[in-house]
Amino acid sequence: MGEKVVLREQVKELFNKKYGEALGLDRSVVVPYKLIRGSPESIEVSGFPDDVPFRNPNTYDIVCLEKILQAADKMTFNVKSQLQ
């Protein structure tokens, strides 16, 4: 596997973990990117790199993936309204 694929999987795991924490769970939960895209006010992400928008990790280049992983400890998700 290439480096970008590995980084992408690490970012997916990070987002799933942070999303699960935001829901009050002690496990990872798959982030519903499509629902969030349709209702972006439903989730607030803080501690994210300033020049990187929150979206599905499949869309990031390697530079963005690295920046996200470097900011992982500062990053938090806040689910403001349930997605359906």
UniProtKB/TrEMBL annotation:
Q: Which Pfam families match?
A: GTF2I (PF02946)
Query: Which keywords does UniProt give here?
Result: DNA-binding, Nucleus, Repeat, Transcription, Transcription regulation
Q: What is the lineage of its organism?
A: Eukaryota, Metazoa, Chordata, Craniata, Vertebrata
Q: PANTHER family from the entry?
A: GENERAL TRANSCRIPTION FACTOR II-I REPEAT DOMAIN-CONTAINING PROTEIN 1 (PTHR46304)
Specify the protein name: General transcription factor II-I repeat domain-containing protein 1
Q: Matching SUPFAM superfamilies, A to Z?
A: GTF2I-like repeat (SSF117773)
What species does this protein belong to? Answer: Goodea atripinnis
Checking InterPro entries in the record gives: GTF2I, GTF2I-like_rpt_sf
Gene3D superfamilies linked: GTF2I-like
Top-level taxon: Eukaryota
Coiled-coil spans are none
Task: Tell me the compartments it is located in.
Answer: Nucleus
